[in-house]
Every structure is written in C-alpha cells, then in structure tokens.
C-alpha cells in the first residue's frame, strides 16, 4: 500500500523557514539569488507545490523580502502558499508558521536555504515519522569530529560511526511540534532539538548529500553545480 493511501485524510502542512538576513553572503540575498532557471527559494517551494501529500505551505520571510515573495508567488502560480512575517530567530519564524497552519495532522519544517528538497525526502520522512511522531533527515558524518575546549584544545575525539549531520525536512505530528514550541525557552538550532527537550524520541532517516544549506558564497557556487546536474 502506498504512503498516499496509508495517510488517508491526515493533512501535511509545510513551513519554509526563509526569514534569515543572509549575513554571510556579502550583501547577496541568497533566497532570491538565481539558481539555474529560477530563484533559489523557488526550488523547494516548487517541490512542495507539486507534492500531493502537502496541503498547505507557509513561507516565513523577513520584512524586506515579503514583497519579493508575493511577486514570486504570483509569477509561479503557487496555490498552496501563505506568506508570513518571520522573526529574529529561526525558531521565531517556525513559531509564526505554526500559527498559520490549519487542520494539519503532520508538520514538515524545511529550510528555505536548502534548495534541493525532493519528493522522496518528504515521503520517506513521513514514513519515518509514523514510528515515533518525529523524524529528521540526516546523513552520516564523513569527517573525524573533535570536541574542543573554548581555547581550541582537543578534549575528545568523537566516535564517527554514531554521528549524523542533520538536515531538513524535519517532520512531526502537529501536537508534538506545537507543544515543543509552546514550552521552548532556550535557543535551538533545529526543530528536533525543541522536541528532544520534552523527551520525545526522534527518528533519523537517510537524507541526501545534495541537500546542502546555502550559507556562504562558496555554498552558492556548489549549489549552482548541483543545479546544473538536476536540470
């Protein structure tokens, strides 16, 4: 039986966190930078738009980008999109996105700066999330990771075969992620961390090495190489 049949009437809402200021991009707004034939942000939203599992998409943008986001929505005829004003921190933007979702059993959070979202990442994430109510795309760490002191001295070499680099999408039941954000008082760098703080088990599932996050000009150069192979 396919996942689409198993899901039945359970609705999936997507939040695209895209309110960052691109501080490390040398004054380039990475989300609207050209990537192949379209802006970087359009890559992941196009996938969500055509995915039958996704019923609603909330895109959190900063104030300066809202007008550009609205124009892009109209140009690309995104029918599932709701735009909202994000917050100062990523978790603030996700919180605003949660307030905009309606009648969703599942919530998928994805970084707008990760253009190479795929239908498989969404579908496999939902399958994994059905086990525990929470699932995160991740890839095994390739490098040796050192734990260091504040002054740069190695404290410990971590066991690489147990280390994973997390990505997005991250998928949760609506109840779990809203509870996590309601109780959240610390700064977290991903949504799984908020859920973990409440003691929920989070399932890792295999991500994609092409699913990079564009943070620096060097990342954008790599993304353009990946995009050429995908066109």
Key structural traits:
231 residues; alpha/beta; Spore Coat Polysaccharide Biosynthesis Protein SpsA, Chain A; seven-stranded mixed β-sheet; two-stranded antiparallel ribbon; 8 helices; 35% helix; 25% strand; globular; disordered N terminus
Task: Describe what you observe in this structure.
It is built from 8 helices and 11 strands. It is α/β, with parallel strands linked by helices and 231 residues long. Mean pLDDT is 93; it is low at 1-9. The chain has one domain (3-230): Alpha-Beta Complex (Spore Coat Polysaccharide Biosynthesis Protein SpsA, Chain A), CATH 3.90.550.
Biggest beta sheet attributes: 7 strands, mixed
According to DSSP, the number of beta strands is 11
What is the count of helical runs? 8
Quickly give the structural class: alpha/beta
Order of helices and strands: HEEEHEHEHEHEEEEHHEH
CATH topology: Spore Coat Polysaccharide Biosynthesis Protein SpsA, Chain A
Topology:
Elements: H1 3-7, E1 12-18, E2 34-35, E3 38-39, H2 40-50, E4 54-61, H3 66-76, E5 81-85, H4 90-100, E6 106-111, H5 119-132, E7 134-140, E8 146-148, E9 154-157, E10 164-173, H6 174-182, H7 191-196, E11 203-206, H8 217-230
Parallel strand pairs: 1-4, 1-6, 4-5, 7-11
Antiparallel strand pairs: 2-3, 6-10, 7-10, 8-9
Task: Describe the structure concisely for a colleague.
35% of the residues lie in helices and 25% in strands. With 231 residues, the protein is an alpha/beta fold. The chain has a single domain, classed as Spore Coat Polysaccharide Biosynthesis Protein SpsA, Chain A, CATH 3.90.550.10.
